[in-house]
Amino acid sequence: MTAKESLSAALETFGAEMQTLMVMEEMAELTKELCKHARGADNTDAIAEEMADVYIMLSQMELLHGVEDRVIWWYNAKLARLEERLRNEEEDNNNG
Prior knowledge:
Elements: H1 3-14, H2 16-38, H3 44-65, H4 68-95
Helix pairs in contact: 1-2, 1-3, 2-3
C-alpha cells in the first residue's frame, strides 16, 4: 500500500469529520511538546514524533480537500516571500 493509499484508507475508515478533529488534536500535542522544549525539556524525539503525526494528518487534509497542488503553490510562494524578507533584513543590517 502506498502512502497515499494509506492516507485515503484512513479517511474512508475513520471519516472526514473524525480525521479533521484528529488533525487539531495532533497539532495541540505538537504545541505541548514545543512548549516543554521552550521551558528547557530535552524532548527532541517527542517533537519529531508529534511532527510526524501532524504531517500525516495534514497530508490527509490535503487529500480530503483536494488541495495538494495548492498547498505546494502556497508553500513555494511563502518560501519565496521569506527569502525576500531575509534578503531585506540582511541588507538593512549591512546598511545600518
